[in-house]
Amino acid sequence: MDPVTILLSAVVILFLTYVYNNRKQHKYKNFPPGPKPLPIIGNIHMIDMANPHKTFIQLSKMYGQVFSVQLGMKKVVILCGYDAIKDALVNHAEEFSGRPRTPVLAKLRKNHGLGLSNGENWKVMRRFTISTLRDFGMGKKGLENKITEEAEYLIQTLKSYEGKPFDNLTIMNAAVSNIIVSVLLSQRFEYDDPTLLQLMSSINENIRLLGSPMIRLYNIFPTVMEWLPGGQRKMFENIRTFQDFIRATFTKQKKELDVNDQRNLIDVFLAKQLEGKPESTLYYHNDNLTVLVGDLFAAGMETTSTTLRWGLLLMMKYPEIQKKVQNEIQRVVGSSQPQLEHRKQMAYTDAVVHEIQRFGDIAPAGVPHATNQDVTFRSYFIPKGTMVIPFLSSALKDEAYFERPEEFYPEHFLTPEGHFKKNEAFIPFSLGKRSCAGESLANMELFLFFTSLLQNFTFQAPSRAELDLTPAKGLTSAPQPYTMCAIPRS
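Given the sequence above, the corresponding structure tokens read:
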């Protein structure tokens, strides 16, 4: 190539780069502030990829409640503190109600299901889910009875250990899983059922992998990471196995379907397919059903069982709090089966359950949102399609709303007179249009399982065991593996 051609090519490249950068600068004019990014990698070099929320805390001290980081070539807005999160998700609910594309999950999910879908599909699936959960007893006596029955199975299983140390991960996962399984499939699994063990193992492994640095890098550089060995391949395998189980299940149920006797959520979905309406084809198809059931199973198992495991760990760590809960249970419930109606008479226990959720901080970064349209928010301009992370941990540990945010302190939810008090910054299920559809179900489970367990057992650490409250690494904030002793109460 002659020198003139090389020179002309260089001039063209420089001109195009100048035009592109100008357009990009115009698009992000008055964008939320943040650290200066490096070419290609953005701010990855300064973010703790195993615990990014720790980096967000430090950056919020420098840039305020609304700031930005760049992950690779993608700009991301971070919302810190309850006031900023509420402002976005409630006062600007429509503008912030989208979900960004998550490359490692999009491959097998596309825009199906509930958790990460967008547009009309998400609206239809959310309406269907909330309506069907209510029909099958969410917040009602029917489902409450299922939870109390499962609590009895759990109690008998814990008694079988005769006060000896054991790891509660699988048992708690299984007990909680059986509640959502009863809604989805009208059945329950024994805690050692191989099918249930395989499903729970797949979910737990994927939760861990989703929080790993390699998967976070995959979501930033999918084209490059696609060809490298890593956790993404195991994730794909786990998702395919899980989806195969779901498809086999609803294929069997379709053969037995009686539209006049819809026994569970899958039956209701399958009946929708037969209605012959435009929605039947557009939204109530098998791919949506597969991903939706996976969403509900994973969400219904993981966060609630993790919260309960935090609760038992914290009761061992603070035996004086455990004793106060047990005294209140004895005074209000006695030897009867705990019921939801007891909660209004059990201010201290209710406060402890809320504080377990706050302190456990199960989903510190929440689920990412995306702007559905250009929006001016708190004087900053955020373009359509921008990923937005409402940093829920910053609300649950907001010093403006919690007196001792880093401590386990049930008095955060009690008046000086000992009555239960709400705290608006308590948002473990997020806020707005994308808040957790199963919040009511989760709250039922947490109260009933927790009170039933503390009514029947005193939880202690094995001799000479140290109780570590440092969260394990993963997408959610779970306790480190631990063993416990469940001492039956006479």
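The longest helix spans residues 286-317. Try to locate this feature in the token string yourself.
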